[in-house]
Amino acid sequence: xxxxxxxxxxxxxxxxxxxxxxxxxxxxxxxxxxxxxxxxxxxxxxxxxxxxxxxxxxxxxxxxxxxxxxxxxxxxxxxxxxxxxxxxxxxxxxxxxxxxxxxxxxxxxxxxxxxxxxxxxxxxxxxxxxxxxxxxxxxxxxxxxxxxxxxxxxxxxxxxxxxxxxxxxxxxxxxxxxxxxxxxxxxxxxxxxxxxxxxxxxxxxxxxxxxxxxxxxxxxxxxxxxxxxxxxxxxxxxxxxxxxxxxxxxxxxxxxxxxxxxxxxxxxxxxxxxxxxxxxxxxxxxxxxxxxxxxxxxxxxxxxxxxxxxxxxxxxxxxxxxxxxxxxxxxxxxxxxxxxxxxxxxxxxxxxxxxxxxxxxxxxxxxxxxxxxxxxxxxxxxxxxxxxxx
Length: 390
Ligand SMILES: Cc1cc2nc3c(=O)[nH]c(=O)nc-3n(C[C@H](O)[C@H](O)[C@H](O)COP(=O)(O)OP(=O)(O)OC[C@H]3O[C@@H](n4cnc5c(N)ncnc54)[C@H](O)[C@@H]3O)c2cc1C
What we know:
By secondary structure, the protein is an alpha+beta fold. It is built from twelve helices and seven strands. It has three domains: 8-129, Acyl-CoA dehydrogenase/oxidase, N-terminal domain (Butyryl-Coa Dehydrogenase, subunit A, domain 1, Orthogonal Bundle), CATH 1.10.540; 149-235, Beta Barrel (Butyryl-CoA Dehydrogenase, subunit A, domain 2); 244-385, Up-down Bundle (Butyryl-CoA Dehydrogenase, subunit A, domain 3). The protein has helices at 8-17, 19-32, 37-46, 64-77, 79-101, 106-126, 236-243, 252-271, 286-311, 319-347, 357-365, 376-385; strands at residues 130-131, 149-153, 156-166, 174-179, 188-193, 199-202, 216-226. The structure holds flavin-adenine dinucleotide.
């Protein structure tokens, strides 16, 4: 740790200090399906905007493992804020800690250094927000199903394509998209300026849960992207996805935090201490205590697996290490929905009133297992084959 660098606990403390305001705002974001602008304004003022930006670029210098704890803390109060903040941090980490682990030629390393210096400056000095709409609905793979094209022109590319579930629509400064130059095999990671000509946001956004992510459809028609917005040198995104797939777990801590939020809400409700609840304490029935115990058990299992997978993450993982990662993804995402469902059984019908946070958390928790490229099904399929073939 460099001198003056924040400790992990201090970083998590910044997120925890936002909790009361975030819990209150979460109600509005959910009701209106609107982006958590106020929370991002707070990230700008308390420094969390640059939590995963290395200290030498002016950030807080969180490691991936530090960031996971911060993200979990945010998810406890507002799942949609945790998830949108993750899209921003994923780019910070791909270009920072992960890029440093990858093989590059000296020329690639030098050009990457120059580009990320400017990218990080935008985040730290202007409060730029990065999103990462990768999904096109064509294939679940991290490096497949990319139909978005980047046609080389003088000084950059003209990008054309359509991304679904483009979280942070209308709020991001950059839409960081995966795309391909016709004739090339590798994926490129380009930062499409949100304000550029040819960028359109389409479709309504009125989903079941995680409504504050505002994940609408992004249409790009011949959008000029300058060379300076190629966030990783050509070929490096493929290398990162293959050699450091751990970043695909970065969606999990939002849901792990959400699970913790469900637990805390249930605990207060059973004690009769949840603000706004009509009924008093209702903790005495043994069957409720069994349900409450099961909820804690699942939460502890999720935390243990998630922390272990992230804390042991290394470049070029073995299959045995990947098994741990896939198991962590399935466990965290499935347990989020299971724990929220148990919370309804334990607390009962009154807890499901729209005025109670459990109702929103129950809806939010359902979506974790669908998140690609490491969705619960994809991970289950890989676990199903692990160890059985050479
Ligand atoms: C709130 C929210 C925010 C999101 N934000 C972003 C974002 O910012 N950026 C982004 O890129 N994406 C984002 N996504 C998209 C997400 O990662 C998935 O791409 C999306 O949910 C897939 O939806 P689909 O309808 O195309 O499902 P499908 O791809 O049809 O998948 C349906 C189910 O089938 C499974 N499945 C599909 N293909 C396979 C296969 N070959 N093997 C095994 N299982 C398979 C999937 O796991 C899933 O459970 C977001 C999604 C949600 C819900």
